[in-house]
């Protein structure tokens, strides 16, 4: 009887261990696919349904609470309080979710203030959290600038559950972003965003020889508004700033009756589509992006304005 019971326990532990291994692989694969440059671990995630539908091209738009993540300089041009929440279902992987919350808070003196939280998690396996504090200010003439202070925290309940001796608990690091917007005309805007300028390092397991680097990312963008109805936008993104390292993200948006929007975008051989509806104090956006090797990803965003 005791032998049978022990075998049963061993089988459960083996199944649990396999779940942990495959769970880690699933999270790594999905983070790899989500990142525009194909890297995992706090890398660029196209948060917000509207930016995703526009192909991840949003640096020169940054006109809602998504600016906390994409370009903090955009907060300087906003009035009132903006709240936004996003839920993403990447590639229909069970228990894998991406959540994003952002707020454009009341101004503090001459500064616009924002807060953000981004979570990528695979239930009972891994959880990546990014907490963001944003400050922005109008500059000289058409120029505005912003800065993000970010706190990264990586938890691995899967390792903790099975008492992995190399796991010392949650790992954390600090990051810094800067952003700028320039309104050259009423309908033409240029944007710049440099994320993770200090390239913070994070180490999850003590046996890891070299810590993981949260890569720097440079975004250069332009957006054009035609007759308050059609928006065309494009971003160039790079890790190094070298000309041969830049990748193109582009998208378009058209509004009907100032209430309904249709969006399309493209980024590194991935296409996206989306739609939105808005009223005076609320809006809802939806996006779908395809992937050549994995299933589709979906995002829904709800925003409120006060």
Overview in brief:
The chain is an alpha+beta fold and 306 residues long.
Tell me about this structure:
- The protein is of the alpha+beta class.
- 15% of the residues lie in helices and 49% in strands.
- The strands form two sheets. It has a 14-stranded antiparallel barrel. A two-stranded antiparallel sheet has the order 8-9.
- The relative contact order is 0.17.
Mean pLDDT: 83
Beta-strand percent range: over 45%
Oligomer: single chain
* End-to-end CA span: 66 Å
Reading off the top of the CATH hierarchy, the class is best stated as: Mainly Beta
Major sheet = 14 strands, antiparallel, barrel
Helix content: 10-25%
What overall form do the CA principal axes indicate? globular
Question: Could you list some keywords that capture this structure?
Answer:
single chain, about 300 residues, alpha+beta, Porin, 14-stranded antiparallel β-barrel, two-stranded antiparallel sheet, 4 helices, about 15% helix, about 50% strand, globular, disordered N terminus
